[in-house]
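hey can u check if this looks right to u? its 195 residues, i copy pasted from the old doc so theres a chance i mangled smth
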Amino acid sequence: MLRPSSPRLPLLHDVDPDSELGQLLGLTLARDGQPLNIFAVLAHHPKLMKRFNLFGGMLLNKGDLPAREREILILRVGWNAQSEYEFGQHTIIGGDAGLTDVEVAALASDRCLEVHDWNDTDRDIIVMVDELCAEDCVGDLTFARLRQQWSEAQLVEMVICAGFYRMVSGFLNTMGIPLDDGVPGWPDEPDTSST
């Protein structure tokens, strides 16, 4: 399905910083002093945005998953949902968490598992995300493999994190939220000449 080519709701960037909404936007992630575009659209529903930030912030900053593995999960969800905004934001966050440009590019490929030599842990996360996005359920074999590596709390967090970012990706796609200035879009196709 084609994605909207422009925002369907106005971006609320020019809000009085002393107003209640302005103060709430002041607590969100910003780029060059301006709230990220996702928050400039979420601002149309301040009560929801406040709770969204608490939940998303917990997954992003206070969860039990290691940052690198969390970013593999989120980037793969963004690819499956074809959410360029989600993928672009987490390209930056993923790089900060230790993902290489080659790994990020591989995550944006239908042949992700073939174009990069992932370790078993990374591979299991990618398969989990792909199964969840395709079937709304992680298969028995994949879950059993994950269970050998992760705690019960981490397993819960993985599935919830994937679900949260699927929801976010659907919101971004539906609202036509444009990339923030300086945020990359889709990476170039991975080089498969050595595979």
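The longest helix spans residues 152-175.
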